[in-house]
Amino acid sequence: MDSKNISPACLDFQTPTRTEAERFFRFRTPTDLDGRSVHRLISRCPPLDANSVYANLLQCLHFSGTSILAETGDGQLAAFISGYVLPENPDTLFIWQVAVDPVHRGKGVALSMLDALLDRTIPAGVRYLETTISPENGPSRTLFQKLFSRRKAPFSKRPLFGRETHFGGGHDDEVLYRGGPFSAVGP
Ligand SMILES: CC(C)(COP(=O)(O)OP(=O)(O)OC[C@H]1O[C@@H](n2cnc3c(N)ncnc32)[C@H](O)[C@@H]1OP(=O)(O)O)[C@@H](O)C(=O)NCCC(=O)NCCS
């Protein structure tokens, strides 16, 4: 399965209310027109790597089926999650970046969006979720551990990219977390 094979019916979703977050934010799939706003949002969300606008445009265009954004009632971008299905492992959704605008943090937005993304992709064959987390990023670690726990999914972790080996000392280690299998019924 790749992201463009997920049917549009799955994508134009309004998920049922699961958390308070969804009462205040509209979740939807990104389009190429969101690319520049996503780029600005990422730059407000250290320690995330800022990619080029072009890379964000491609995320929003080619990986829209496996990505999600949240916007406020007046259409401001509040949060974005980029993801894609592993080309060699079509049952695995890889989460690339999670970015919540600093003013909207602590309201359950990220957790709720991850849930919505799983609810959207599980019917299309996703059973596992992977992401990488730097050991220094406690909020990200607890976010994903909470997601796995809520979904009653076991998880494992192993080093993936090393500070020296892969980044030449210019970036923290990245540890791969893999959770699942997920059942079709969410929390
Ligand atoms: C990490 C981040 C995405 C969390 O977004 P958020 O919408 O505030 O997170 P949520 O409100 O959904 O939190 C869900 C759970 O994650 C954990 N969590 C989130 N922020 C946390 C923090 N600052 N410290 C500790 N735990 C945190 C908690 O377990 C929380 O559940 P709880 O509130 O019931 O304790 C956000 O802080 C962010 O964008 N950070 C900068 C970019 C980044 O590091 N992204 C993650 C790596 S890809």
TrEMBL record:
Every N-acetyltransferase domain range: 25-183
InterPro entries xref list: Acyl_CoA_acyltransferase, Ectoine_EctA, GNAT_dom
Enzyme Commission number, as recorded: 2.3.1.178
Keywords assigned: Acyltransferase, Transferase
Origin organism lineage: Bacteria, Pseudomonadati, Nitrospirota, Nitrospiria, Nitrospirales
Transmembrane segments: none
Enzyme type, top EC level: transferase
A single MF term (Gene Ontology): diaminobutyrate acetyltransferase activity
Family: Belongs to the acetyltransferase family. EctA subfamily.
GN (gene name): ectA
Protein name, as recorded: L-2,4-diaminobutyric acid acetyltransferase
Pathways involved: Amine and polyamine biosynthesis; ectoine biosynthesis; L-ectoine from L-aspartate 4-semialdehyde: step 2/3
GO annotation (BP), single: ectoine biosynthetic process
Gene3D superfamilies named in the record: 3.40.630.30
Pfam families from the UniProt entry: Acetyltransf_1
Source organism superkingdom: Bacteria
